[in-house]
UniProtKB/TrEMBL annotation:
Organism: Paenibacillus illinoisensis
InterPro entries (UniProt xref): DUF3221 (IPR021598), NA-bd_OB-fold (IPR012340)
Descriptive protein name: DUF3221 domain-containing protein
Pfam families to which the protein is assigned, alphabetical: DUF3221
Domain of life: Bacteria
Length: 119
């Protein structure tokens, strides 16, 4: 009986480690327009709104953008310094983000990858 229990325990420990499956994460993808950029304390982030008119983008300020964010998919995205410098306010972007996010309004997400969308 002891041998059977020992065999089961060893099997439970060894077999999962022998799995050769590469699990690909299906991170969520978001699209929108960069409406604000900030780089405080070496943390680079964009505020991205799903929908915004050219007039609102040109005439708005951060508080206006945050109010617009309450009614649509919007988020801050933490990016690296290279992407921060390459993307400008007003550009449409497609962002792949990590699953986790900091809870705030709007939420703060970490970017896995970012692409500009040419319209």
């Amino acid at each position: 009986m002891r041998k059977i229990v020992l065999f089961i325990l060893i099997g439970m420990l060894v077999l999962p480690g022998c799995s050769n499956q590469n699990v690909k994460e299906n991170y969520p993808i978001y699209e929108g327009t960069v409406v604000f950029k900030t780089d405080k304390n070496d943390k680079y982030k964009f505020l991205v709104l799903q929908n915004i008119s050219k007039e609102d983008l040109e005439n708005g300020n951060l508080q206006d953008f945050i109010e617009l964010a309450q009614d649509q998919e919007a988020s801050y995205y933490l990016v690296d310094k290279e992407n921060y410098g390459a993307i400008e306010v007003g550009q449409r972007v497609k962002i792949t983000a990590h699953f986790n996010q900091l809870e705030s309004l709007p939420p703060i997400r970490t970017v896995v990858s970012i692409q500009t969308i040419n319209e």
